[in-house]
């Protein structure tokens, strides 16, 4: 193709392309476009990996796939389609997870450049660490609607993917979901939990029963609770811990043959009456309205309900239609789960019609009970499935920039590989593609790429178990895969990557193994070639407080100030590099072209650094509001407790620049972070220049 034709590329670049080996991670919207561009440009050897299979909803933007490919491997089909453009290219496809143990540092060292086109943070973190250790340049890319971003990551030269904190996944307190929903998303999350309780993988934190441990419900007389007829429909009992203890929901449903009337009355009548008995909850709230299966609203026109309305995805179903869907889905899902092998379960999928219909019907019935606005099936799918609108042209432009950056990397022209942000509207310099002025320097305090990475872990050592330290802190929060942990002062191994070697420690509390205040834990993930020191800070956590906090230096939020150019240079062409996270409305998305957890479009922020004026929110905490985790980035001069802190306010002028951050989360509309910067005086006058170098 292009590289095989003399004169298309400079001779040096032509030779570099002909001898290059590239890896594409992800074969979704961006991955397909990148593969097509590379093949047409004449790159001779490409490997591509993706674990996903093709879904019908992919076809509107992933043009290497067609209807006959639905259900097949994305990587394999992308390879077959790309070879039709250029049969001379060698393409190797893997239908596998990049996090698998077959793809370690040695695997990544086989390539000249790695191109990321992923849709989740865990995989991005893993590829970032592998490329750092293999010292292979990585090009990270992503899109969200009309916004896009491309950046190069090279060890020692630029910041890595984890140098700046990413917004944590939006979550909701369990008592809000179970007791006092106030938004449609609360009802949707509850309905997804109900699906898992009946048909999927059961998780203790996803119980849908009324939560008597709710702090707002405390102080009530035990006599105020309902009797067995109302609140104890399936043998409920109140434990000393306060939660409603009951027979396994799925087993109870099976015992009742998944009878729609019995299940409906339990979830939407008996449990609601139980909530009403918790009178403290309703002193300042409007109480919910229980509804029974034989209610006139559910029975009206039910005989005339046709399944046609289930295809009207933009229509808000009536209560009668929700009841009909509930009954029909129970029948279908029961059949599906009974066809599984013993021990298997269904997995909720937004593209599985019975599963999606079930969640829509249940969420809308619960919304009616709590007088919350109901949503159409289309809206519920967008919220429950974490969908960001994906636009084919945005993917194509982003993929084009990725390939241009790849060529510059092959020429070792790293200074021209600055991050580029795609915008919906032109700035005053008439730019839709807004480049950074300089390469973003590494964060010297990054707990991944710094010379001696370390964090502080604020934890209740009397309440956290070793198993929770491994699963919640090391794996989920710090993105390790198979860690080994030892107590530095004693050399005692408390967590081993070898199966069953430290299994006896899993249920022990940290303090039982002398992991107390001031202890340093040495963590080593051999697969990622990643080491980290964890300094324990003991704290007595209250019942409703997070069990642990990961505390890092505030400077991890941005590159060191001495690496920031002067003000005129830093704001000349590109967006500010200071990235902030909101505490109360961070939403995490997980679409094929995932990128963005960003802030409200109309929100400006202020803050002061030595060289660049921006606007920041009033807090520098990133909080995952669950009973397990809070992550805090604090200043070394401040006390360790996470507290809100006012920032210095300065004036801002002129242009606003949109910065797209990574997504990963969970529900809600796309949000955009806007940073205003001053337009520099330029000798170019009104020239329209788009420079992506």
TrEMBL record:
InterPro entries (UniProt xref): ThiF/MoeB/HesA (IPR045886), ThiF_NAD_FAD-bd (IPR000594), UAE_UbL_dom (IPR028077), Ub-E1_IAD_1 (IPR042449), Ub_act_enz_dom_a_sf (IPR023318), Uba2 (IPR030661), UBA_E1_SCCH (IPR019572), Ubiquitin-activating_enz (IPR035985)
GO cellular component: cytoplasm; SUMO activating enzyme complex
Residues reported in the UniProt entry to bind Zn(2+): 160, 163, 446, 449
Pathway: Protein modification; protein sumoylation
One of the GO biological process terms: protein sumoylation
Superkingdom of this protein's organism: Eukaryota
Biased composition (Basic and acidic residues): 559-571
Active site: 175
Keywords: ATP-binding, Metal-binding, Nucleotide-binding, Nucleus, Transferase, Ubl conjugation pathway, Zinc
MF term (GO), any: transferase activity
Compartmental location: Nucleus
Region of interest (Disordered), ranges: 205-240, 559-579
Residue stretches making up the THIF-type NAD/FAD binding fold domain: 8-420
Start and end residues of each Ubiquitin-activating enzyme SCCH domain: 336-381
Biased composition (Acidic residues): 205-219
Domain Ubiquitin/SUMO-activating enzyme ubiquitin-like, residue spans: 457-542
Entry binding sites for ATP: 26-31, 50, 58-61, 74, 97-98, 119-124
Family: Belongs to the ubiquitin-activating E1 family.
Subunit structure, interactors included: Heterodimer.
UniProt protein name: SUMO-activating enzyme subunit
């Amino acid at each position: 193709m292009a590289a095989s034709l003399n004169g298309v590329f400079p001779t040096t670049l032509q030779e570099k392309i002909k001898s290059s080996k590239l890896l594409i991670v992800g074969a979704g919207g961006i991955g397909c476009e990148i593969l097509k561009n590379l093949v047409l440009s004449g790159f001779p050897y490409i490997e591509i990996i993706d674990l996903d299979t093709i879904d019908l909803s992919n076809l509107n933007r992933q043009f290497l796939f067609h209807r006959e490919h639905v259900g097949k491997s994305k990587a394999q089909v992308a390879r077959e389609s790309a070879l039709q453009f250029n049969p001379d290219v060698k393409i190797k496809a893997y239908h596998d997870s990049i996090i698998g143990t077959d793809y370690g540092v040695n695997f990544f060292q086989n390539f000249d450049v790695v191109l990321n086109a992923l849709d989740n943070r865990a995989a991005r973190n893993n590829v970032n660490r592998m490329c750092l250790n293999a010292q292979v340049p990585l090009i990270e890319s992503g899109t969200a609607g009309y916004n896009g971003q491309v950046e190069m990551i090279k060890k020692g030269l630029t910041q890595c993917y984890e140098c700046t904190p990413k917004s944590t996944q939006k979550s909701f307190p369990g008592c809000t979901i179970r007791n006092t929903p106030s938004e449609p998303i609360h009802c949707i999350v509850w309905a997804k939990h109900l699906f898992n309780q009946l048909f999927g993988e059961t998780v203790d934190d996803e119980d849908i029963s009324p939560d008597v441990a709710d702090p707002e419900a405390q102080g009530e007389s035990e006599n105020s609770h309902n009797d067995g007829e109302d609140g104890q429909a399936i043998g409920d009992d109140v434990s000393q811990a306060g939660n409603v203890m009951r027979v396994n929901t799925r087993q109870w449903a099976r015992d009742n043959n998944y009878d729609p009337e019995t299940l409906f009355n339990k979830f939407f009548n008996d449990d609601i009456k139980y909530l009403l008995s918790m009178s403290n909850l309703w002193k300042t709230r409007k109480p919910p309205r229980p509804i029974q299966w034989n209610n006139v609203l559910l029975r009206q026109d039910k005989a005339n309900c046709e399944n046609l309305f289930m295809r009207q995805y933009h229509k808000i179903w009536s209560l009668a239609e929700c009841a009909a869907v509930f009954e029909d889905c129970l029948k279908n899902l029961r059949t599906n789960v009974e066809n599984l092998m013993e021990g298997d379960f269904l997995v909720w999928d937004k593209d599985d019609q019975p599963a999606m219909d079930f969640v829509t019907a249940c969420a809308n019935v619960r919304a009616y009970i709590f007088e919350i606005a109901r949503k159409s099936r289309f809206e519920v799918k967008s919220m429950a499935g974490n969908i960001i609108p994906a636009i084919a042209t945005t993917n194509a432009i982003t993929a084009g920039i990725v390939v241009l950056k790849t060529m510059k990397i092959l020429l070792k022209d790293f200074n021209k590989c600055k991050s580029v942000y795609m915008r919906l509207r032109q700035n005053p310099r008439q730019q839709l593609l807004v480049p950074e002025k300089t390469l973003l320097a590494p964060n010297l305090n990054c707990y991944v790429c710094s010379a001696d990475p370390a964090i502080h872990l604020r934890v209740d050592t009397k309440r956290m178990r070793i198993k929770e330290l491994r699963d919640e802190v090391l794996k989920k929060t710090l993105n390790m895969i198979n860690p080994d942990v030892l107590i530095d002062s004693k050399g005692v191994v408390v967590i081993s990557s070898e199966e069953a070697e430290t299994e006896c420690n899993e249920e022990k509390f940290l303090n039982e193994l002398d992991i107390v205040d001031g202890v340093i834990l040495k963590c080593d993930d051999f697969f990622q070639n990643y080491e980290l020191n964890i300094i324990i800070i003991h704290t007595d956590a209250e019942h409703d407080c997070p069990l642990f906090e990961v505390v890092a230096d505030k400077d991890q939020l941005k590159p060191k100030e001495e690496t920031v150019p002067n003000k005129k240079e830093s704001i000349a062409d590109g967006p500010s590099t200071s990235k902030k996270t909101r505490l109360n409305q961070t939403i995490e998305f997980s679409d094929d072209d995932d990128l963005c957890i960003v802030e409200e479009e109309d929100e400006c922020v202020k803050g002061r650094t030595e060289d660049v004026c921006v606007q920041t929110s009033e807090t520098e905490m990133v909080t995952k509001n669950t009973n397990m985790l809070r992550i805090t980035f604090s200043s070394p001069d401040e006390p360790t407790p996470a507290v809100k802190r006012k920032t210095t306010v300065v004036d801002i002028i002129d242009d606003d620049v949109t910065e797209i951050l990574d997504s990963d989360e969970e529900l809600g509309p796309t949000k955009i972070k806007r940073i205003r910067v001053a337009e520099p005086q330029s000798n170019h006058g009104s020239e329209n220049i788009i420079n992506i170098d």
